[in-house]
Design goal:
By secondary structure, the protein is mainly β. The chain is built from five helices and 47 strands. The protein is globular, with a radius of gyration of 28 Å.
């Protein structure tokens, strides 16, 4: 460190020490920055750069000096901002760095640069690199998105990170005997920012070290705060930023051929070549327009399987499709009023995103493909506005419209979030929906309301109290509201104790959670709950990045006879109406889990045993849930990941088997270099269920509906060349097989397969 200090004194660079709260940074402007992005900070420009140092630990324990020192050098040129990182490692050769595909470096050491280009302390662009310069990027948001569901009273209080957006920037790094060194160049053409000639940006830098499990920040970040980004530093007086013309043209070509059984033979269809184009125009520094015609929505990897045997409601899957990803975070609303996966396969669309003054603007208009030949094409209009108030409070408006022929659904909602005394916030959302979806029928209306009475984020104590009500006729065809006619209550309390420096136990947290649920009218008439639980979670962070969790719960469930109106009991060959039990009470459950540190090997294992309802029978069951995930990185280029969720449910009354679900999944990736990788994903989905029975008599239930799908063994192979976002070549093959006896791997028969090709090129003007 003495040598470093001597170098800084000799070069007379401006040093900003986060630990000393020197948080207002004035970057030097270098008109002609002759810097080669090669991971070696040897150019003259770096000797003129500002130096950000004095990092502090913020996870698992905040306000402690960082275990290892970090320096961030920064300056800007007329067309880009530059960062150089020296990350020192005092524990020997323990730097974790691998070649990886973009957005897949979460298990490596990494540096995260957060640029709040509108300086609103609510949303920041994330530029993350590992020691080899491999990139991971996205948006870190807080406020409404980060607060939803009581996140602040829970473990992480710093909002949510969306890794789907991709930005064009340069980075390169290298591992050194003393740690690692990285260079980053971010062109202003890749950013949206304020329209003023001179402006201030928020900045935060985070360092993640895998062998300790620590996260350090340049500015001191304390846990006792309702906002993470409000604790960032500031880049002061940036001026003369030149983006030039921002026009991205991204033509793409796709083609595929699919095969399927045809009697005793197997038949391949015709090639289906398709041309499409995406166009992005930076209207101003703070507004972007994106248009698409015939966009490619080919799947290059299946969604991760989820157990659905004993689920009553639809499960959420994240958006992955390129057209929707840029600016997607600006469509966030409480209770997901906008869910772009409802637009299945648009023929064309347009999107406007950005910020004018203190108002964020996001709009999507799209014409979707029709569900069947001759059916009308659904037309979507989705609008989200959010206005900043004060330091970190907001008010927002959301409007969605989906029309298909004479059917339509419209949703209008308003929301607000108020932060008070720095560690408290309250928020509210009020929404109305209007729907006409029956021929000749009348429109019906519904309501959704969500009120967070209070949320406290303290150092050792946190709490959250919230009520969410959704009326029976509420419908959001452009959103994801998977249950109606209920009122949820959410009451969380958190207690945290911190270990002393060097102790084995670094952080111990317990949560006490109350989750009552009422039928909508029952809540308004002060009647008893429909279901609910009381739960306690214990979480332990151990030195070296180990994580242990334990949970117990007690729950109850009432059954609504109206939901079983179509059920009949086969009583000695005579169908009679089915009467479900009125309710189940005093059911219990427990779970234990352990997560190992990120090393060459990593494991996550959880085992739970729960007494809970079997919804399809209106009965009590016993569920054994086991989840195992293993990751192995034998070299810097090869990754193997395996996971196996297993669930077995038996009936409580006699111990008989009800259902089994197994979804093993294997992913193998070989990264030839930063641009080229090969991937195989194999996933076997096996979910089976016994015939339904009356819980009182054991007689068969007569129910219309289908059994879980047949076992499916899905295999996907992919070659990927991806030098920059938007310029890609994908060549893949996928096949689906099935068999009579799950997981026997005997007499597998192919139910379908296909080859596909995608090529696109990003022209940036």
């Amino acid at each position: 460190m003495l040598a470093i200090l001597a170098f800084l004194l000799q070069s007379q660079q401006n040093v900003y020490d986060g630990h000393l709260r020197q948080l207002d940074v004035r970057l030097p402007r270098i008109e002609t920055a002759a810097v080669r992005i090669d991971g070696v900070l040897d150019e003259d420009a770096w000797r003129q750069a500002a130096v950000l140092t004095g990092f502090s630990q913020y996870r698992p324990v905040d306000s402690r000096p960082a275990a290892d020192s970090t320096e961030v050098l920064a300056f800007y040129a007329p067309d880009a901002i530059y960062f150089g990182i020296r990350a020192f490692e005092s524990h020997g050769s323990v730097v974790r760095a691998t070649l990886a595909d973009r957005d897949n470096i979460g298990a490596d050491d990494n540096i995260q640069i957060l640029l709040d280009t509108f300086n609103d302390r609510r949303r920041a662009l994330l530029f993350e690199v590992n020691p080899l310069g491999v990139q991971q990027d996205g948006v870190r948001s807080e406020g409404i998105a980060g607060a939803a569901g009581g996140g602040n009273a829970g473990g992480r209080f710093d909002g949510i990170v969306d890794l789907n957006p991709d930005y064009v920037y340069e980075s390169h790094g290298r591992v050194t005997p003393w740690g690692f060194e990285v260079e980053v160049r971010i062109p202003f053409k890749s950013l949206r920012y304020q329209s003023g000639d001179t402006q201030d940006w928020g900045i935060q830098v985070v360092r993640v070290t895998q062998h300790t499990g620590y996260e350090d920040t340049w500015t001191p970040v304390v846990r006792a705060s309702a906002s993470f980004l409000i604790q960032s530093g500031t880049l002061k007086g940036l001026s003369g930023l030149r983006r030039g013309l921002v026009m991205d043209v991204n033509p793409e070509f796709t083609s595929h051929v699919d095969g399927a059984p045809a009697g005793t033979a197997y038949h391949y269809g015709h090639l289906d070549p398709q041309l499409g184009v995406n166009l992005r125009w930076g209207i101003t520094q703070n507004l972007s327009m994106t248009g698409t015609v015939n966009p490619d929505f080919s799947q290059v990897e299946a969604d991760v399987g989820q157990v659905t045997v004993n689920e009553r409601f639809a499960l959420f899957f994240p958006e992955k499709r390129p057209f929707f990803l840029e600016g997607l975070e600006q469509f966030d609303t409480p209770n997901a009023l906008i869910y772009t996966r409802q637009i299945h396969a648009p023929r064309g669309g347009a999107k406007l995103t950005g910020k004018v003054g203190g108002t964020g603007i996001a709009y999507i208009g799209a014409v979707d493909d029709n569900a069947a030949p001759g059916a009308p094409h659904p037309v979507f209009n989705l609008l989200r506005l959010r206005r900043d108030l004060g330091a970190s409070s907001t008010v927002g408006l959301a409007y969605t419209d989906r029309a298909a022929g004479s059917d339509w659904n419209r949703v209008l909602g308003a929301d607000a979030r108020v932060v008070w005394k720095k560690i408290w916030f309250s928020d509210a959302q009020f929404v109305g929906s209007w729907t006409k979806d029956t021929p000749g029928g009348r429109a019906r209306s519904g309501q959704l309301w969500d009120v967070t009475l209070y949320d406290l984020t303290g150092y050792s104590y946190g709490n959250h109290a919230e009520l969410v009500g959704i009326s029976p006729d509420f419908k959001a065809s452009s959103g994801f509201v998977n249950r109606v006619n209920v009122v949820y209550g959410r009451l969380f309390n958190r207690f945290t104790r911190y270990g002393k420096p060097g102790a084995l136990l670094e952080n111990a947290t317990t949560y006490i959670l109350l989750r009552p649920t009422w039928r909508y009218d029952d809540f308004l008439k002060f009647r008893s709950t429909l279901e609910g639980s009381i739960e306690q979670q214990l979480q332990f962070t151990l030195r070296g990045g180990w994580f242990v969790t334990a949970l117990w719960q007690n729950l109850h469930q009432r059954f609504d006879s109206a939901e079983y109106g179509s059920y009949q009991v086969d009583s000695a060959g005579t169908p009679v109406p089915f009467r479900p039990p009125p309710g189940l009470y005093n059911m219990w459950g427990a779970l234990g889990a352990i997560s190992t540190p990120n090393r060459a090997w990593k494991a996550n294992v959880s085992i739970g045993y729960v007494s809970g309802p079997i919804f399809a029978e209106g009965a009590e069951g016993r569920a054994l849930n086991v989840f195992t995930a293993l990751a192995w990185k034998p070299t810097s280029s090869l990754r193997l990941e395996a996971q196996w969720p297993h669930q077995r449910i038996t009936r409580a009354r006699d111990g008989s088997w009800f259902s089994t679900a197994d979804i093993p999944r294997l992913k193998v990736e070989y990264q030839l270099n930063r641009d080229i990788f090969f991937r195989y994903v194999g996933q076997y989905t096996a979910q089976k269920r016994d015939a339904l029975r009356d819980p009182r008599t054991g007689d068969s239930l007569i129910v219309s509906g289908s059994q879980p799908p047949e076992p499916q063994f899905r295999n996907d192979f992919l070659f990927s060349y991806k030098p920059t976002p938007g310029t890609v070549v994908f060549l893949g093959y996928g096949s689906s097989l099935t068999e009579q006896n799950p997981l026997s791997f005997r007499r597998l028969s192919r139910t379908g397969d296909g080859f596909f090709l995608k090529a696109s090129y990003l022209f940036r003007m």
